Amino acid sequence: DGSIGISNLEKVYGEGTERTKAIDDLSFDIDGGEFVSVVGPSGCGKSTLLYIIAGFLDITDGTVSVDGTPIDGPGTDRGVVFQDYALFPWRTVKENVLYGLEEAGVPDEEADATAQRFIDMMDLSGFENKYPKELSGGMKQRVALARTLAYDPKILLMDEPFGALDQPLRETLQDQLIDIWGDLDKTVVFITHDVEEAVYLSERVMIMTRHPGTKKTVTEVDLDRS
Ligand code: ADP
Ligand code: ADP
Q1: Are the C-beta atoms of residues 66 and 83 closer than 8 Å to each other?
Q2: Residue 188 belongs to what H/E stretch?
């Protein structure tokens, strides 16, 4: 159902004088279908946390589980959206969206129909044959979202996805994300340094702190959306 369990998580980069403890004894659970934001100052460990959940980074200590099973590398149960979109520049919009479906082994005809459905959902109809460099930032991020949503991950992991966009466009995409989340029943973990954005979007906000030389703390704030 897309639940995430984080237990006594620790992440250390480097060794000796280069040693940096990015995450220190972090524990919390996210229910399936929940929309959680993680906010905090630059360097507090937000991206590290997200990329650990994604399975891109090794864990120093503790466990991270999805639906009760410890993760073992990346998987199609989790989809990631990056601040810089990370589209394939040599692929068209349609081919970018098809990518995850091809990786997941979806037969061509079904993949084509599914890709088109998400292209339409993201208001990209008519742009199927354009290349990323021909698109605006907002459109590129919508292609990235379509590409990730198309293979139907239970968990959507987003790292400052609207950070490179201007304010009106951010607000448009924030509202679009709320609509998608309401329709698709996904767990969302959304990283941002913008508290206003976090409060606007989420059901729960995790605040990570960074005090040099002292233990990091995480404070959770539940927002009543009823
Ligand atoms: P945030 O996303 O909140 O800005 P990060 O997760 O990027 O924080 O970084 C947390 C800490 O880990 C910072 O002190 C950062 O300098 C350090 N860090 C991040 N990535 C690496 C890396 N690849 N090697 C060494 N230190 C890193
Ligand atoms: P939004 O993402 O909210 O649509 P954008 O600034 O991305 O806002 O684009 C506004 C509109 O401009 C798009 O919906 C599209 O119709 C048009 N547009 C943007 N880039 C291109 C492009 N490369 N070629 C043709 N039309 C474009």
Answers
A1: no
A2: strand 187-191
Q: Take atom 10 of ligand 1 and give the residue whose Cα is closest.
A: 45
pLDDT at residue 38 in the model: 95
Check if 136 has its Cβ closer than 6 Å to any atom of ligand 2. Answer: yes
Q: How far apart are CA 24 and CA 76, in angstroms?
A: 28
Cα distance between the two ends of the chain: 22
Rounded Cα–Cα distance for residues 102 and 61 (Å): 34
pTM of the shown model:
0.86
Tokens (6 digits) for 201: 């979007």
Q: Look up the ipTM and state it.
A: 0.69
Single-letter code of the amino acid located at 163: G
**Average pLDDT taken over every residue of the chain:** 92
Distance 15 CA to ligand 2 centre (A): 47
* pLDDT in the model for residue 222: 80
